Amino acid sequence: YQARVHHLVQLIKESGKTVALTGAGASTESGIPDFRSQDSGLWNQVDPQKSVSIRALKKDPQSFYRFNFQWWDVCLQAKPNACHHSLARLEEQGWLLGVITQNIDGLHQRAGSQRVWEVHGHLRSCHCLHCGRMFDLARLKVEYHCTCGGLLRPDVVLFGDAMPEDYYTAEQVLSGCQLLLVIGSSLQVQPVAGLPRLARRVVIINHDPTPWDESAELVFRESAGQVLADVVKQLGNNTGPY
Length: 242
Ligand code: NAD
What we know:
Elements: H1 2-14, E1 18-22, H2 42-45, H3 48-51, H4 54-59, H5 61-77, H6 82-92, E2 98-101, H7 107-111, E3 116-118, E4 121-128, E5 134-136, E6 152-156, H8 165-173, E7 179-183, E8 201-205, E9 218-220, H9 224-235
Parallel strand pairs: 1-2, 1-7, 2-3, 7-8, 8-9
Antiparallel strand pairs: 4-5, 4-6
Helix pairs in contact: 1-9, 6-9
The protein binds nicotinamide-adenine-dinucleotide.
Nicotinamide-adenine-dinucleotide binds next to loops.
């Protein structure tokens, strides 16, 4: 393990442009279950494609919001863990350009990361499907209709949605990327699962196998928080190219 951490530190030092791509596994150490690990409670009983889809929202908004607030509330109350703190530190020290995240929990920003691209949206707001008016997400706890009567939807990407602007920015950010750290993502949700092709080298930090393991420079099965904290420790007070 130490040899692989050392190797990763060398790759970061050699790279002129390093970016992180995080998934739900970056936040499990904060107590938020992911979708695809075995025994992650909520998601063993339901199919996310069905319960987190625009179709489900339109069909039965009450059930949609009752179900989704079960895990959104966990996201909203969670605190950043060693993975988020370490990525914020790497950015602060100039080793990391920023974080592309599939997570909607906002924990990277809360840990201090400045450049975060939220390719699956966030839990800060919602808007009206009819007139477009925006509200805080909290409004949905008491009312899921707009003042105009239209249905409110959260600003998270649901199955069946188009990708938000941050996704296209993320593709641009990856142009010329020499090292992509994929952290806590099963890389099974498209189009994000295809982003590693845009980077020259890929390092995977994920408990379970991913489709990119074979072409990756390095693979860690250890916990994201531990691996990244060890990387930060080894880099010490040295500063990077940013
Ligand atoms: P996923 O559930 O498909 O995969 C998570 C991966 O992380 C798994 O392969 C698991 O082995 C690994 N993992 C779990 N804990 C880990 C740890 N501590 N260290 C290393 N690896 C760990 O997640 P995904 O690829 O992000 O796709 C799920 C989708 O669901 C995303 O699009 C995301 O928007 C959404 N989601 C978000 C949150 C959140 O915001 N925190 C939580 C659940 C789901």
